[in-house]
Amino acid sequence: MSHSKSKIWVHAVFATKDRQPLITPIIRPTVHSELRNQLITMACFVDCIGGVTDHVHLLFLLNPKKSMADVVKQIKGGSSHMFNQTKLTATHFAWQIGYGAFSVSESHVPRVRAYILNQEEHHRNVTFMDEYRRFMVHYGLPVDEIG
């Protein structure tokens, strides 16, 4: 092959520090817009972003020249820096240290997109911790308790 090709869909999930309910409906569009901007800066195509007051979900194509760790570090660090510079929240804004990043089959992109865009409805019945545990079990990862 003379050219490298890749198409890796990623469903990423991360929470606000201590799962504080900082992402109110009023600022949610700004938060999602900045996360989108950070992903675009990393040359990642963004499909959709969703979430509730204490966490976000992102569906994007990973730039083949970037590692997952570098992308997540940039989007979390760049966004929280902007939120604090502009005083988006009354208190200091920070993301939790960890994150989840899961590959998504092309055939499952529509289902994951619908799931991400329906977060408010989904979280009327399921807590973030329950959702987190389900992801760990689904992907065969150890279930550790997050703070």
Automatic annotation (TrEMBL):
**MF terms in GO:** DNA binding; transposase activity
For this protein, the record's SUPFAM superfamilies field holds: Transposase IS200-like (SSF143422)
Q: GO terms for biological process?
A: DNA transposition
Q: Which residues form a coiled coil?
A: none
Where does the Transposase IS200-like domain start and stop, copy by copy? Answer: 5-119
Query: This chain belongs to which protein, by name?
Result: IS200/IS605 family transposase
Q: Which domain of life is it from?
A: Bacteria
- Show the stretches that span the lipid bilayer: none
